């Protein structure tokens, strides 16, 4: 059974590619019906057909009985297709695996349309973690990133509708929408005392995946390649930009996959072929019986310059394949522990345009390690400044001298990060905090009151997000550059 390329193309990514991307963190090995060979890229024939299965358990008769019972006696009319799709959803839900999912005909049509180009939505990859819709990473330059959403934020409500009881596809359907439309998300962030609301305007989400720059400091030329996800043309873009950097005689290279939720398996494979020599596998695939298959490049030797890889908790799946392979051939991994996604999915069309994506395998590191639910630990661990993790401000009353609150503690952290020393960050509004607020208001053409009202708090938060997006005080990148030499 040959699969339509569109149906198997997007893999490893936390993706429905519907703007708010769903739990498609998976490796799809079904590039064709050819079986895998050593040195080749993974390609598994799917052991499935649309013919009736004579090995179905006797208990399947219970399903037929339940179907008949509902059709004959349920108080309301219900369509056959609704019951069939409900049964499929129920079976997949019983697996307790957020990566095994079902897309009906309509969802697959939208999926196929949108994987070919840019798409519209808020631009965030999500997964189901402990029963909660959880952000894996916002996409670069998306509404989600601009609003300050970040990995591990839990989405509790959409436009005031509680998501409790929703599966991931249903939640994604609530959040996605057309460019220009507005959506309000209620977010619970770790460390925040209570949920907060974020209003986003959906937009066209960029597909550009590789960004490069040349850092010239301390007498060294260092290439920096940021990969935001692994899509169809990522490896080609990566190779072109790497060649351009190498033409400038770089002394070292930093590969930045922070906030990268994954993507196409063949894309990360093509990139690893530039770095992993042929005497070690770049990945191992293990089936349910424990049989392992190893895959190799044809590269004779490693690059003649030092390399390290930047990761964080938003680096998932394909990013982790890259990071752990580079780690196990001797390169430094800098940042914080990655997401931890080590299972492999295949998308199987059911003949009517719908598709089941099911976990078939584990993927293992070159040395045979499984990082699932553990992530890739950095060799050089470093976090970002505290203000990178400040919570959004929710003011109920104006903050002023000799008052105290959790909100003020958060704002003091923000002010300090922006270069305005509040004197303390414990939530007490003292004279030094007042002076810092006055200076900020003066510098930003606000009324100089020394008090924090909604307008002042909003500008503080906006300036902070702008600094983060521009990479100011990026201590992880600075450490990566220092570690390289």
Structural description of this entry:
It is a single chain. It contains 13 helices and 20 strands. The radius of gyration is 25 Å and the shape is flat. α7 packs parallel to α8 and α8 (265-272) packs parallel to α9. The strands form 5 sheets. It has a 6-stranded mixed beta sheet with strand order 11-12-13-16-17-20, with helices on both faces. Strands 2, 14, 15, 18 and 19 form a 5-stranded antiparallel beta sheet that branches. The chain is of the alpha/beta class. Among the domains are: 210-343 and 364-385, Alpha-Beta Complex (2-enoyl-CoA Hydratase, Chain A, domain 1), CATH 3.90.226; 393-469, Muramoyl-pentapeptide Carboxypeptidase, domain 1, CATH 1.10.101.10. Mean pLDDT is 84; it is low at 1-40 and 44-50. 29% of the residues lie in helices and 21% in strands.
Structural topology:
Elements: H1 5-9, E1 20-21, H2 60-73, H3 80-94, E2 101-103, H4 105-114, E3 119-121, E4 124-129, E5 132-138, H5 143-146, E6 154-158, E7 161-162, H6 168-175, E8 182-188, E9 196-201, E10 203-205, E11 210-217, E12 220-227, H7 234-247, E13 252-256, H8 265-272, E14 283-286, E15 292-295, E16 307-311, H9 318-328, E17 332-335, E18 343-349, E19 355-364, E20 380-381, H10 406-417, H11 431-443, H12 454-469, H13 475-484
Parallel strand pairs: 1-4, 12-13, 13-16, 16-17, 17-20
Antiparallel strand pairs: 2-19, 3-10, 4-5, 6-7, 6-8, 8-9, 11-12, 14-15, 14-19, 18-19
Helix pairs in contact: 7-8, 8-9, 10-12
């Amino acid at each position: 059974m040959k699969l339509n390329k569109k149906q198997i193309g997007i893999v490893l990514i936390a993706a429905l590619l519907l703007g708010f991307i769903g739990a498609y963190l998976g490796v799809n090995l079904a590039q064709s019906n050819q079986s895998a060979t050593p040195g080749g890229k993974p390609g598994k024939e799917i052991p499935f057909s649309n013919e009736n299965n004579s090995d179905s358990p006797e208990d399947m008769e219970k399903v037929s009985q339940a179907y008949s019972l509902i059709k004959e006696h349920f108080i309301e009319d219900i369509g056959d297709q609704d019951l069939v799709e409900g049964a499929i959803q129920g079976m997949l839900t019983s697996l307790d695996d957020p990566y095994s999912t079902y897309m009906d005909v309509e969802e697959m049509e939208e999926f196929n349309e949108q994987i070919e180009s840019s798409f519209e939505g808020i631009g965030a990859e999500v997964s189901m973690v402990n029963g909660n819709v959880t952000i894996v990473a916002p996409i670069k330059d998306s509404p989600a990133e601009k609003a300050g959403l970040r990995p591990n934020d839990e989405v509790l409500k959409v436009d005031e509708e509680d998501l409790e009881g929703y599966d991931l596809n249903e939640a994604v359907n609530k959040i996605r929408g057309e460019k220009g439309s507005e959506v309000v998300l209620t977010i619970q962030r770790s460390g925040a005392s209570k949920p907060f609301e974020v209003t986003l305007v959906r937009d066209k989400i960029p597909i550009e995946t590789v960004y490069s720059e040349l850092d010239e400091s301390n007498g060294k030329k260092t290439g920096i390649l940021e990969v935001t996800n692994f899509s169809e043309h990522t490896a080609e873009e990566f190779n072109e930009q790497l060649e351009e950097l190498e033409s400038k005689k770089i002394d070292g290279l930093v590969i930045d996959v922070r906030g990268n939720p994954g993507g196409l398996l063949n894309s990360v494979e093509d990139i690893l072929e530039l770095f992993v020599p042929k005497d070690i596998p770049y990945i191992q695939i293990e089936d349910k019986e424990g049989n392992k298959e190893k895959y190799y490049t044809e590269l004779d030797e490693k690059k003649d310059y030092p390399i390290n890889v930047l990761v964080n908790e938003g680096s998932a799946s394909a990013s982790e394949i890259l990071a752990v392979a580079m780690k196990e051939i001797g390169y430094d991994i800098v940042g914080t522990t990655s997401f931890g996604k080590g299972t492999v999915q295949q998308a199987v069309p059911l003949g009517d345009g719908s598709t089941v994506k099911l976990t078939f395998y584990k993927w293992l590191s070159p040395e045979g390690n499984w990082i699932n639910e553990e992530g890739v630990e950095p060799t050089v661990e470093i976090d970002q400044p505290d203000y990178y993790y400040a919570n959004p401000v929710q003011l109920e009353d104006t903050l002023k001298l000799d008052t105290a609150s959790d909100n003020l503690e958060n704002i003091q952290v923000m002010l300090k990060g922006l270069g305005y020393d509040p004197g303390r960050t414990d939530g007490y509004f003292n004279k030094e905090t007042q002076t810092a607020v006055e200076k900020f208001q003066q510098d930003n053409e606000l009324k100089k009151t020394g008090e924090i009202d909604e307008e002042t708090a909003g500008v503080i938060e906006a300036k902070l997000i702008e600094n983060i997006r521009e990479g100011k005080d990026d201590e992880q990148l600075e450490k990566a550059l220092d570690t390289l030499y």
